[in-house]
Amino acid sequence: MCGRFAFYSPAEATAALFGATGTLDLDPRYNIAPTQNVAAVRNREDDGRELVALRWGLVPFWARDPSIGNRMINARAETVAEKPAFRAAYRRRRCLVLADGFYEWRREGTLKIPWYIALAREEPFAFAGLWENWQSKETGETLETATLITTEANEFLAPLHHRMPVILEPDRAERWLAGDDELIGTARQDCPRLRAWPVDRRVNNARNEGDELIEPDGEALEG
Q1: Is the pLDDT of residue 144 over 90?
Q2: Is the dihedral of CA 4, 8, 12, 13 positive or negative?
Q3: Is 191 considered catalytic here?
Q4: Which of 2, 95, 132, 144 is catalytic?
Q5: Which of 3, 173, 178, 223 is deepest in the core (most CB within 10 A)?
């Protein structure tokens, strides 16, 4: 599972790495939580790619109530093509959610210690994601939302959590947006080299923000 992440690199410059244009008025974030806006790249209907803000927590187009999105922050790679909530988006509405790193919690005795995970070479990357456009039948309100694809954790991340997000660099992101159905099946072995370190438990509270949240609170691991 991926329940918190950070994105503090310049959005427009990061989007350009993935072939997208556009501007977003989003502040650097170190503790992005479900139901909040995330920076994403998706294919435009006409041509090219665009940088957009999407709410984290996918609301299927057929949903009666948008609150269902609170439970749809992640989609399992093993079942995403068949699950009713995700299969239409999987076929037609893929996206990249931009990030600099993410958090997982490791149980140590009676405590769950947060760890921050980033690329070893300290560059931004993208999560494989899906997006949906939901419209209220009562008010006409529209809502664009997203979910992150997760898979079984690789050897490096397994001690922290049994699941991991599908991490994409530009070459593999190209394949994801083009509709490649095999890419997420190889996400574990194709994951770029990562670095992880424990951080302060203040990240547990989604109201807390700031770069101090990713400051190491112990020895880092790399693999």
Answers
A1: yes
A2: negative
A3: no
A4: 2
A5: 173
